[in-house]
Amino acid sequence: MLLETARPPAAPPRTLTAVQAERVRRIRRTGAYLLLVIATAVFVLPFLWMVTTSLKSDAENLAFPPEFLPSSFHFENYARGWSGSLPFTTFLLNSVLITALSMLGNLISCVLPAYAFARLRARAASVMFALLLATMMIPREITLVPKYVMFAGLGWVDTYLPLVVPEFFGVALYIFLLRQFFTTIPQELIDAARIDGASELRILWRVMLPLSKPALASIMLFSFVGNWNQYLESVIYLRTTDRFTIPLGLAMFSGQYATQYNQMMAVALITLMPILMLFFIAQKTFIRGVTLTGISGR
């Protein structure tokens, strides 16, 4: 009978000491900060290039290889670009008008269907909501020609109507975000309002909207940025210079023989200020709205 050799007992699993665990946490934290710094530099570098280019002279804009910092700061580029041969004050007023009307249209047309999808019960509601989401997969470029034929037949070319009127018929993404936020509001509040005799519109106005400020701020910020930077449809429908918007005015800096990049960047920075100011003012509300719209899984 063979004697079985005794096996040595298995060694206990090695555990990290407190010092080693703290070292690992520091290494991970340092790596995460390093990645954040690199990502921040990637996003900030184009903006810094705009700032430095707006302060260069005409000769430095054409220098090769290009230099990042100008030899001297030319702040007069901002006045030359804004008050030059192009009426940027008119372009600014046009952009403000179109953006304000479009934001109003998005707010009116998206709140009502979002509330209906979130709180009202109807046959085939899930099917209609699925069809609404399916429209988000249709590229905007596909609808450009049919829309142009329709608006040209209505005589709306070279007016602001093709840029403003469609915003009063809802945007699928905004309806989806608002609907997701509305589902996070307790049903008890709505039931209590109905017991008190409030109509659905009164519930929406008195209960839902005051509690939905973060989501509404997110929608308004998305709408503002999208309409403020609108170029494709503006260049299709607007023909008269006095009706041009800021993006069309910036495109006019490109000349036949030379482009005044310093003045273009100066005006671009001026028109970028409203977006930056709006984001920094509503930053906390915007982030909270974007976060809460993804909480509900209904």
From TrEMBL:
<dbReference type="InterPro" id="IPR035906">
    <property type="entry name" value="MetI-like_sf"/>
</dbReference>
<feature type="transmembrane region" description="Helical">
    <location>
        <begin position="122"/>
        <end position="139"/>
    </location>
</feature>
<dbReference type="Pfam" id="PF00528">
    <property type="entry name" value="BPD_transp_1"/>
</dbReference>
<feature type="transmembrane region" description="Helical">
    <location>
        <begin position="91"/>
        <end position="115"/>
    </location>
</feature>
<dbReference type="GO" id="GO:0055085">
    <property type="term" value="P:transmembrane transport"/>
</dbReference>
<protein>
    <submittedName>
        <fullName>Multiple sugar transport system permease protein</fullName>
    </submittedName>
</protein>
<feature type="transmembrane region" description="Helical">
    <location>
        <begin position="159"/>
        <end position="182"/>
    </location>
</feature>
<feature type="domain" description="ABC transmembrane type-1">
    <location>
        <begin position="92"/>
        <end position="282"/>
    </location>
</feature>
<dbReference type="GO" id="GO:0005886">
    <property type="term" value="C:plasma membrane"/>
</dbReference>
<keyword id="KW-0813">Transport</keyword>
<keyword id="KW-1003">Cell membrane</keyword>
<feature type="transmembrane region" description="Helical">
    <location>
        <begin position="203"/>
        <end position="225"/>
    </location>
</feature>
<dbReference type="InterPro" id="IPR000515">
    <property type="entry name" value="MetI-like"/>
</dbReference>
<keyword id="KW-0812">Transmembrane</keyword>
<feature type="transmembrane region" description="Helical">
    <location>
        <begin position="261"/>
        <end position="282"/>
    </location>
</feature>
<keyword id="KW-1133">Transmembrane helix</keyword>
<keyword id="KW-0762">Sugar transport</keyword>
<keyword id="KW-0472">Membrane</keyword>
<comment type="similarity">
    <text>Belongs to the binding-protein-dependent transport system permease family.</text>
</comment>
<feature type="transmembrane region" description="Helical">
    <location>
        <begin position="32"/>
        <end position="51"/>
    </location>
</feature>
